[in-house]
Amino acid sequence: MSFSTTPAVIAIHGGAGTLSRASISVEQQARYRAALDEILRSAQAMLADGAAAIDVVTEAVRQLEECPLFNAGRGAVYTADGRHELDACVMRGSDLAAGAVAGVRTLRNPILAARAVMEAGGPVMLIGPGAEQFAAGQGCETVAPEWFDTPERFAQLQAMQASDRTALDHDGASQLAPTVPAPLDERDKFGTVGAVALDAHGHLAAATSTGGMTNKRPGRVGDSPLIGAGCYANDRTVAVSCTGVGEAFMRGLAAYDVSALVEYVGLPLRFAAKRVVMDKLPPLGGRGGLIAVDARGNVALPFNTEGMYRGWARVGEAPVSAIYADEAGPEQ
Questions:
Q1: What is the pLDDT of residue 180?
Q2: Catalytic one among 58, 79, 106, 192?
């Protein structure tokens, strides 16, 4: 077993959106940072023990799905008919193996279902009841649809329906009540979660999961479970996980475009990621961001909104989490 001389690294995100510092309490900000830091430390420990990148990103996203602060798994937003439809994707850079599920309602951790699809080979994506039946047969835990419910998300659905709007994630706490703090204005926040990693063996992997957008049309699928749009990993280039206006990221093949700019144009990661997020996506209405790590261990976390829940950790270094645009990142 060989080990790379490049320190292993993990990066995660919990959604991008509009900054709302005026309404955030110190306690609320601390909750988000603590959640990110805990997941980063867990992933960092796995990498230090020599775990494969695919295992690290899968576990990191599973933990994000378990945290009701983020729009994935428990705490996912509601569709227009008051249900949850969850999407997830995972990809391994060493052999381009990938798996995805979309529109699932009874799988506790969609990312584990996506991983099961990848491991089984054959189809890359399964949807709806067929995905649920397959994943359950592979040992993935099933739950009643109500398990994903949270009062905060239901209140957001009611507010959106009362205003006859559809939000590209979930409605803002500020719309519900001005006293409810939110680090990012949830009326303009994109709640996908994701992770990318480079392991000690020099392999890359990416994982992405989401509950979609509040009050979305039933059956709508965004970029998160689509290879090359919301998730991509290739040992030759980069691992990428996106968060933003799904339709624009799909049309722009955002995740793969970062890889293509690195491989075919020869751009360094920070410039490739920035070109996609700042130049290519905005004309398509693509607000949001992405996290990426390349084969050399460089990390980039660009976003064109005012904030993005994000964090990164190299083996042997203290984890770093951030929310606001004016907080320096590893690419800056």
A1: 41
A2: 192
